[in-house]
UniProtKB/TrEMBL annotation:
Domain N-acetyltransferase, residue spans: 38-202, 234-377
SUPFAM superfamilies named in the record: Acyl-CoA N-acyltransferases (Nat)
Organism (species): Cellulosimicrobium protaetiae
GO terms for MF: acyltransferase activity, transferring groups other than amino-acyl groups
Lineage: Bacteria, Bacillati, Actinomycetota, Actinomycetes, Micrococcales
Annotated protein name in UniProt: GNAT family N-acetyltransferase
Pfam family name, one: Acetyltransf_1
């Protein structure tokens, strides 16, 4: 599942930073991974079923509140910006079974902080043999190489995520490599048998179902809505549309302004260039959105059915007009109509927009939690 939780950035101005190549301190060669009597190679598309089994096996052992699908795993291999030949490893035992993996990922749209995401895991059968330590050293080193190669003179971050249910050894591993806990997230749910509010919209605002025709306008709304949120970066068109194997368009809703004050928006210094170009071209203006996913594999793990709000956002110029509540309530009604028992989402516990209070007022309650670990460069 994707997290909608991000907050205001707190980094020094990039002009005070040393060059990214210096800060990243990228090694010229990657450390070898030899532990565990495994054969190591890059991940390949044909590995998708085995990688799914490995990742879900790790999730079960660590009591993580989700399971993945083959579609989600296959998407790892189809992102056009990824080079898995260089940015992944899998460890294979003598029977040909995958026992460990690593993936280092970047986001092509990073414009405020350039990031390297570190993903990986070791099957319980091969823990305690030094595999995780060597594998994470490889991830850190490759992440530093990618940050240096980005050429982006921006603040930089090496990061990974963990569930509250993770074994203590995982947190100790991250600490050993200098990662610190930076953010905490709450996974929330709301009982759909309780009344869902009716939320009228004012003026020329209109609630509509998500559609392909409005998807690019929704991307622009998202980039505006999350511009002042910690950890969030602009989404390129290819990143926005990728990774939708579990996307539920029937549960996703938008708010559009049928008669925006174009002159005022163009005069607003916070209006980004892409939105300004769309306004001049007379394109539709999405001002808020609720994008949802359906994760059937998680239902038996959690013990209930639910619809999941992936991201919820409102353009900065339209805040205070109940746009988010209208979109979220529409999503909840769609979940309920399809027989879901709960609405679910997650949120940064330090979110400055008041999102936590909003969700609490609508009946959302915390179920589980997760956290982000990082090295800030």
């Amino acid at each position: 599942m994707s997290s909608s939780a991000t907050d205001q950035v707190e980094h020094p101005a990039s002009t005070t930073l040393a060059p990214i190549a210096e800060r990243a301190a990228a090694p010229s060669t990657l450390p070898p991974v030899t532990a565990g009597d495994l054969t190591w190679r890059a991940a390949e598309p044909a590995d998708a079923p085995a990688l799914l089994a490995l990742r879900n096996g790790i999730a079960e052992a660590d009591q993580e509140p989700y399971r993945e699908t083959i579609g989600e795993i296959e998407e790892l291999f189809t992102a056009p910006w990824r080079d898995l030949a260089a940015d992944s490893l899998v460890g294979v035992d003598t029977d040909g079974t995958l026992r460990a993996y690593a993936l280092v990922d970047t986001n092509p749209g990073d414009a405020n902080t350039v990031r390297a995401f570190l993903w990986g895991g070791v099957h319980p059968s091969h823990r305690g043999r030094g595999v995780g330590r060597e594998l994470f050293a490889w991830e850190i080193a490759r992440g530093r190489q990618l940050l240096a190669a980005s050429g982006k003179e921006l603040p930089a971050r090496l990061l990974t995520y963990g569930e509250d249910t993770d074994p203590p050894a995982k947190a100790r591993l991250y600490a050993r490599f200098g990662l610190e806990t930076r953010r905490f997230y709450s996974d929330l749910r709301r009982d759909l048998t309780t009344p869902i509010p009716e939320v009228p919209l004012d003026g020329s605002l209109r609630l509509v179902p998500w559609s392909t025709e409005l998807d690019e306008a929704t991307r622009l709304a998202h980039n505006d809505a999350f511009r002042d949120h910690w950890g969030s970066e602009p989404r390129t068109s290819e990143a926005w549309t990728h990774g939708r194997s579990e996307f539920a368009p029937q549960w996703s809703f938008l708010v559009v302004d049928d008669a925006p004050d174009v002159d005022a928006l163009l005069a607003d210094p916070t209006t980004d260039p892409e939105t300004a170009a769309a306004l001049r071209a007379g394109e539709p203006l999405v001002v808020g959105y609720e994008m949802a996913g359906r994760y059937d594999e998680d239902f038996p793990v959690r013990g209930y059915t639910f619809g999941y709000t992936e991201i919820l956002g409102v353009r900065s110029a339209y805040r205070g007009r109940r746009v988010a509540v209208a979109a979220l309530a529409a999503g909840m009604r769609a979940f309920a109509a399809d027989g879901m028992q709960y609405a679910a989402l997650d949120v940064d516990t330090e979110n400055p927009s008041g999102a936590h209070g909003l969700y609490a007022s609508l009946g959302y309650e915390k179920v589980t939690g997760s956290r982000m670990y990082s090295i800030e460069l």
